[in-house]
Design brief:
98 residues, GMP Synthetase, Chain A, domain 3, three-stranded mixed β-sheet
């Protein structure tokens, strides 16, 4: 049975503790990375994005346009940096465009 706390706690602290105790951070990181990609890349890139997958520290992005894939491959380091800055922690170390 779960512990009961007698003192009042902010909901943010309770949620962080719940995520930590149930080892849900990896799943939350996957969702956060997907949202960060959509926010940073905009509608132009998102229209050609078919799949976003985070495995470990590698982000796999499937694109339906070969031209866009080639164009984004020149800025991989910048994209990784932007995503990590958006999330305020180092989650993505490598980006693979398919």
């Amino acid at each position: 049975m779960a512990k009961r706390f007698n003192e009042e706690s902010p909901i943010g602290d309770v949620l962080r503790q719940f995520i930590q105790e149930n080892k849900l951070q990896a799943g939350m990181d996957k969702i956060d990375v997907r949202d960060a990609w959509k926010n940073l890349m905009g509608n132009g890139v998102n229209n050609y994005t078919t799949e976003i997958l985070l495995k470990g520290s590698t982000l796999y992005v499937a694109l339906s346009s070969a031209v866009l894939r080639e164009e984004l491959s020149y800025g991989k380091d910048k994209i990784i940096k932007m995503i990590n800055e958006e999330l305020r922690k180092e989650i993505v170390n490598e980006l693979i465009l398919r």
